[in-house]
User: What shape does this take?
Amino acid sequence: MPTKAERIDRLAELTAARAEEGRGHGVWREAFDRLRRNPMAMAGAATVLVFVVVAVVGPWLAPYSPVAQNWGDEVFPNQNVFVGPRAENWLGLDNLGRDQFSRMVVGARQTLLVGVVATLLGFSVGALLGGSAGAAHALGRQWGRRLDAVLMRFTDMMLAVPALLLAVSVAALLGPSLATVMIAVGVAQVPIFARLLRGAMIAQAGRDYVLAARALGVRTRRIALVHILPNSLGPVLVQGTLTLATAIIDAAALSYLGLGNPDPSIPEWGTMLADAQRFLAGAPQLAVYPALAIIVTALGFTLLGEAMRESLDPRVRT
Amino acid sequence: MLRFIVRRTLQLVPTLFGLSVLLFFWLRQLPGGPEYALLGEDATAEQRATLRRALGLDDPLIVQYWRFLTRLAEGDLGTSLQTGRPVLDEFALRFPATAELAIAAIVIAVGVGIPLGYLAARRRGGILDSAVVGGSLIGICTPVFFLAFVLKVIFAEHLGWFPSAFRQTPGFSATRVTGFFVLDGLMTREWDSAWDAITHLALPGLALSSIPLAVIVRMTRASVLEVLAEDYVRTAEAKGLHRHVVRTRHVLRNAMLPVTTAIGLQTGALFAGAVLTESVFAFGGIGSFVYAATQTRDYPALLGFILIIACMYVLINLLVDISYSLLDPRVRVS
Assistant: This one.
């Protein structure tokens, strides 16, 4: 799987924070300043902020219980009778007579949780793999190159299976549950994080400050952990932000495939969207609300991630 | 050049071997077991045990893997537990449907994406550019299966412009040659049959093309912008070359290099997307089968399909890589 791997490597190289270019203050500070002046970044950040706030305070914001079928006698999906938005139910009722607005607001939390846990999982396992490979490649001698080669063949293997199919096979292995979705989506992101961090670390290892540290006799492990690693995190953080968007979308796809959260007492946008497909002709709004929520949230993370990438490396302005 | 191709091809061997081991052990760990899927919940423990023995599921894993590998070497990927037919046959049977769908999606993505990305880059900051950038971001963020459903409800069920399911109108008598319905229609000169197949491809193809389209547009735009800033473009313009010549020979040709790679990489997304779109339109290709295989715990079929898809994905990218190196001599050196 050389091409995809190489592209990730190149991305890592391009976006790796360049330590020697800080004028007086650090690259991070400079990148943050650039980010603040970018309207796209601010729009993305605002969206993400709203999403996070709703996710945190959601249960208190919801006027009704998201699971109680309070108006169950008003909705008859079989006869195509649905209740749209009205004064007491701002977004109408779902197919079981539950308040759609409450479900949306409470669902934000699970959706965020799935995205964050999946991303953290992909990030930590990927960073462990990629960090070891990068450090070994950059600082180890022959054994280091070998360890790197073994680890990278492993990630190549994972990259050879399209991400969603990888997630599907993991989900099939574990059986449908909310944890499954997190693990499946997270695992699919592992090789990307690994490849990215490795590439960034190798790019950093060639810099003068690493040579200086070596010449000064700093121990290899310390160079890897204190000097190279922090300077290589830029592209990985960018990827993490973008992955939050992918994770939410992929989680919805798994729900659609019947591999998602089977517990009806936990509303979650992906499951809501998947369930609402059955009523798309009669009650399109049931699908449109969660779909819009997913699209807007994913858009927020994507805008923020793209802007972060740009601000870390002004050369890749697109 | 030959060395480059050989080296690249050899790099695939450990990847694919490792993948087969990984997937084999992975899929064996699935909960339940195929005997439940085959016999249902009511079968007695004895019946299950007999079936497990018959399928060789009680042997040590390493023995099972060895059996799998020797068969693999003979081109035998095992038997689907769902249908009792060879996995390779099942794949071959469904491949034309998905290939046709994927080609339709790529044709839409490339045909629309490259011109749009190019125009957006030429008019950077304009209305078209903003629309293209915004639209492609929204495209990437929209769940494919939702888009498929929306297209189906609007254009098939409400407006009735396109059929809502299958690859051909049921009861349509058409001569089958290759399994590629459009191609069959063209080869046998049954134009109405070809057209019928094309109309069935339109909506699923459009849904499937959303992500590749967004990626290709963004890639083309970024790449054209990069090339436009190159010195050789300025030089070409300065020495008075005709604008058309500069655009096609200098800008487009160089800008297309990274886009080719992006197109190759999208084949993976197409297979994954097929799982989501095919079920919406009851398209009956690989995607629908993969979904059914996960539901029935049809290990051999799932393993076989994923292995074939991974091989194809890797091979397609190898071809892209080689064509890339033909287009850009710099690649061969590194």
User: Anything to note?
Assistant: DSSP finds 14 helices and no strands in chain B. The first helix of chain B runs from residue 2 to 28. Chain B has a mean pLDDT of 81. The two ends of chain B are 12 Å apart (CA to CA).
